[in-house]
Amino acid sequence: MHKSMSELAKNEAKIQEYKERAKQLVSQMTLKEKVHQMVHAAPAIERLNIPSYNWWNEALHGVARAGTATVFPQAIGLAATFDEDLLAEVADATATEGRAKFHMQQEFGDTDIYKGLTFWAPNVNIFRDPRWGRGHETYGEDPYLTARLAVRFIQGLQGSDENYMKAAACANHFAVHSGPEDIRHSFDAVVSTQDLYETYLPAFQACVQEAKVEAVMGAYNRTNGEPCCGSELLLKKILRGEWGFDGHVVSDCWAIRDFHEHHKVTSGPVESVALAVNQGCDLNCGSLFLHLLEAVKQGLVTEKQIDQAVIRLFTTRMKLGLFDEQEKVPYASIPYSIVDSAEMQELNRKTARSSLVLLKNDGLLPLDKSKIKTIGVIGPNADNRRALVGNYEGTASRYITVKEGIQDYVGDDVRVFYSEGCHLYKNGISGLSQGNDRISEVKGVCKESDVVVVCLGLDAGLEGEEGDTSNQFASGDKRDLSLPGLQEDVLKAAYESGKPVVLVVLAGSALALGWAHEHVSAIIQGWYPGAQGGRAIAEAIFGEFSPEGKLPITFYRTSEELPAFTDYSMKNRTYRYMTNEALYPFGYGLSYTDIRIEQAKVDTTSITDAGVRVTAAVRNNGSMAGGEVVQVYVKAEREGTPNPQLKAFRKVRLQPGEVRELTLHVPVEAFGLYDEEGKRKLYEGNYSVYVGTSQPDARSRELTGKAAEKFSLLSSVERVV
User: Fold this and answer.
1) Which residues are 503's β-sheet partners?
2) Which of 47, 360, 534, 675 could form a disulfide bond with 405, CB atoms 3.0-4.6 angstroms apart?
3) Helix (H) or strand (E) holding 635
4) Please, which residues have CB within 8 angstroms of residue 355's CB and are 6 or more apart in sequence?
5) How far apart are CA 39 and CA 21, in angstroms?
6) Cα angle, residue 218 at apex, residues 312 and 466 outer, rounded to 5°
7) Is 370 helix (H, G, I), strand (E, B) or coil?
8) Could you read off the pLDDT of 240-257 as tens digits, one per residue?
């Protein structure tokens, strides 16, 4: 979404107009009125015709927590599409429904929580450790992929109108935040400057400088000793200083009270709110900012700083058109009937189909319905609606589980046998049983079935946010990567029946699937595929389309190979730094068709400021239409540098026999690496560029039978890029 210079100038002039209007409005407020506007539930100021406004709303994968809306696949599933255009489409649809719901709610005087146009999404934290419970809210482990998808998601949410934002996006949680959940209110994430700039900041920088995200949310934890919502380094030096961020900063919910209660960096509420505002936090999710009245009285905060924060907040409300006649605001006319419409449901199905990752297939899939008389559907996630949606979800008008999707697909032609198999994590289903009380039923279903689909994994009650999940293990985090409870016993019983087994995993993170990979015929990673997910999975199993998703995270063999969960160094973490071989690598995913890259070329052998242009012909040699992701990786060929890193990608969909020419640009910055002072440098020496449909590692070659093409480039000088 590139704008011309004249469009940018017009936008800037409009923003300046909104700032002046906000400034003029704020100048009429008392100090008390201003302070009350700095909490998420901002009250009305009737004498100035300012209505009440609740800033807290959620839209991670559809409008959340305010009744019926389209429930798209969870963010980690969106990331698996590797499709920037689709992310923009989903975000635009989310903003459309958000607008429709907002104006309906306004009509009936409803200004409650989750009823505004300020959406606290996307979550662009790096999923550095598979044990983190909130990882499924993110776009995975790679800073580049996260940045590209987040930019398009934000642009989709905020819209392209020259005068008004469709909705306001918020990049969270800034910064260096990815567990453990149970100590997040007191934890200090200690990180090197090099890792900070190489891994934890790039996605946020892209959100700010490219996508022009309206808001940034601080994290609960400390980073290198400073609480993130009151960090001079993060908020002043980097966010507003280095990056020139001009929007508003919001605290995570009740994070300001952690300053004195848990981080112990202030003596009490008054000092805490002063620290936050002085470092650039404008909005408090919570109510502690009401202590700002006392902070001003004590001279800890100036009224000028209060003014600056409140002007930023009202500038956002102005950009949303909340103080203009609704006839002027193009988004105000979106009808409520668009919510959960047939058009939205079709986009949801398309997105779910694109998110599925085929991890293994020995030829069993796709199944031919005409050759099957009976099919067994087994497992605690086969009919689990919660495993469709993840967290921060809306309410769907209809949910289609995997069991229901298969039943609907086969109709009366095939008999479907079903067993829950086991509880998701407990030892038994019936309270008075001796445990493992569905295993005989599992064996009976397998005996009756020509083929068995086993649905295992997790749901948002097992992995998620501290205080938001019923996880009895670790406040939303996972203790290890094993399938919980008796799930693997159920899978082994299905395998031992001798019937062909398809494993469907619904989970928002990597699990240890080593036994499954060695034994079962086919494995589909379904993530939390949205309200329509069961239908998409059934269609994939029966070959209505070819799976095209790619892993946005590494599937490790065991958690024992990982560093300590609390260690924020990137050494031996994620595909970029790991030394062990993955079970399933980042960027990997199989297909029913055979799409290959032909005639890949680079336009230079030396790295210049113009970067490198990669061209390739992509051909579908198979008999089915399908999607593939062209992936470009860069490696600096010298000691102590990361493994080849993703630096360009493009999703392409091809009919059988179709060939498409693609051009991808790899900028000079993609070859730079950050030093210990946080400076990105292009070093003198050799670099490799790999062009393929997966990573250039040995495990990906083994799993796919395809090798990335390698090109050698030279940098003759060392310079900052």
Assistant:
1) 454, 523
2) 534
3) strand 626-636
4) 73, 77, 78, 80, 81, 526, 527, 529, 549
5) 21
6) 135
7) helix
8) 999 999 999 999 999 999
- If one counts every other C-beta atom within 10 angstroms of the C-beta of residue 87, the result is 26
Active site residue 252: yes
Distance CA 720, CA 702 (A): 37
At residue 283, the 3 state secondary structure works out as: strand
Q: For the chain, report the end-to-end CA distance as a whole number of angstroms.
A: 24
Q: Are strands 222-223 and 226-227 parallel, antiparallel or unpaired?
A: antiparallel
Q: Decide if 314 contacts 39 (C-beta within 8 A).
A: no
- 88-113 pLDDT, tens digit per residue, is 999 999 999 999 999 999 999 999 99
Instruction: Please give the CATH topology (third level) of the domain spanning 30-338.
Output: TIM Barrel (3.20.20)
Dist. CA 114–CA 93, nearest whole Å: 17
Does residue 612 contact residue 602 with C-beta atoms inside 8 Å? yes
DSSP bridge pairs for 222: 188, 227
Q: Are 533 and 479 in contact (CB under 8 A)?
A: no
Active-site hit among 463, 465, 466, 539: 463
Q: What are the residue ranges in the chain where pLDDT is below 70?
A: 1-3, 469-474
Question: What pLDDT score was predicted for residue 469?
Answer: 67
Q: Are 227 and 265 in contact (CB under 8 A)?
A: yes
User: Residue 128's closest CA among 586, 666, 502, 587?
Assistant: 586
- pLDDT reported for residue 281: 98
566: number of Cβ within 10 Å: 13
- In this structure, what token pair is assigned to residue 192? 């090197």
Domain ranges of the chain: 30-338, 356-553, 595-720
Q: 216 and 174 in contact (C-beta within 8 Å)?
A: yes
- Give residue 676's region: left, alpha or beta (phi > 0; psi -120 to 50): alpha
Q: Using CB atoms within 10 A of its CB, is residue 333 exposed (0-12), middle (13-18) or buried (19+)? A: exposed
CB 525 within 8 A of CB 506: no
Check if 676 is active-site: no
From the CB of residue 702, how many other CB atoms can be counted at a distance below 10 Å? 10
> Which region holds residue 476: left if phi is over 0, alpha if psi is between -120 and 50, else beta?
left
Indicate the length of the chain as a whole number. Answer: 721
Burial 517-535 (b: 16+ CB within 10 A, else e): beebbbbbbbbbbbbbbbb
Alpha carbons 384 and 380: distance in angstroms, whole number: 7
**Predicted confidence (pLDDT) per residue in 131-162, tens digit:** 999 999 999 999 999 999 999 999 999 999 99
Among 677, 683, 720, 718, which residue's Cα sits nearest to residue 197?
Answer: 677
Using H for helix, E for strand and C for coil, what is the string for 52-74? CEECCECCCCCCCCCCECCCCCC
Topology of 595-720 in CATH? Immunoglobulin-like (2.60.40)
Structure tokens at 361: 């297939």
Yes or no: say if 289 and 310 are a contact pair by the CB < 8 Å rule.
Answer: no
d(CA 278, CA 477): 33
30-338 and 595-720 share one CATH topology?
no
- Catalytic annotation, pick one of 58, 214, 226, 252: 252
**Is the model's pTM score more than 0.85?**
yes
Q: Identify the pLDDT of residue 560.
A: 87
The answer for 256, left when phi > 0, alpha when psi is -120 to 50, beta otherwise, is alpha
The H helix count followed by the E strand count for the chain is: 20, 24
pLDDT at position 272: 98
> From the centroid of its chain, how far is CA 716?
38
On whether the CB atoms of residues 694 and 579 are closer than 8 A, the answer is no
